[in-house]
Amino acid sequence: MGRGMNGTTRHRAERLLRWYPRDWRARYGEEFTELLVAELEERPRSLSRSVDVARSGLIARLAVAGLAGQPLEPDGSGRRSLATLAAALSIFSVVALALWAQLTIGWQWAPPATRATSLAMVVMSVGILVVVALCLLATVPVAWLAVRSIAPRWRHLLGPIGLVVGGLVVLVVGTHHFANGWPGTRGHPWADQGIVPGGVAAYAWASTLFVTSYWLHPAALAQFPGGEVAWMLVSPVAVGAVIVGATRIVRRVDLSPRVVRYERTLGLVAAVTTAIFFTGAALWVVDGGPGPRNLFHIGSIDVVELAALALLVVVAGRAACRVRSGTPPTARA
Fold it and tell me: Which of 5, 52, 76, 148 is buried most, with the most CB atoms less than 10 Å from its CB?
């Protein structure tokens, strides 16, 4: 009986340990598990203990991501912060494009009914353009260093580079094909319609088709063409491959202090720009109106996207600021 009870207690301790990141568990997991087992045997039920373990585990995960505290490997904290910044800006770009693409459809057909929506379109268009441009500028030196490092370190870099290239190929081919079905095509001309290039909006729409509330309505989703549904399943995988590959490259490539400073500067500018874009999006979601023929309708998915953007703005800003406190990445053995 006692042996079975101890096994159950150990299982509970190991479940609590999962709050901590893998690297932390590998170094301290065995010792911490024994402490938890002893604590659980003495006090089987304790909400405050569970909350404390969860809180400490999340802080440890934030440290691994370069967002808080001190990671287990201080020398790599700058690299981790840069990787988190790259991931946050990449995800922000996807969500922002999805929100912007929805607004552009109504914009092609008729002028919005409120000034808030008009201002939102201008702010969001400028914001997403700047964020994408900054991401491209930040990619150039890292991509060049990755290519240069392939020969001596191909085992570390070939996989991430393959993810990025493969994901981009799928996205380019699929987006080009499905952009032809953009709902804004042949919209009614009006004075300020030209602020949004139709081709750009169509590509943004096609690349973010998977960001939709239709996933919660299978019956409605089943009415979509089979190819479009397949693309909605494949495209997020391709986007994920690009983001995962890019963050792994940032964490594995040797970056000089000069490149780190360059990336941090671009990151800070990008973080500020994401906040500006968020402000424009909030104008539309909070104060905008449906407009003529309900073209600018705001749905629950827009509120969810706005909340996601707010979180990503905070993460990007935090990561950009933390790059300064981290030691520049050193060569990996």
Answer: 76
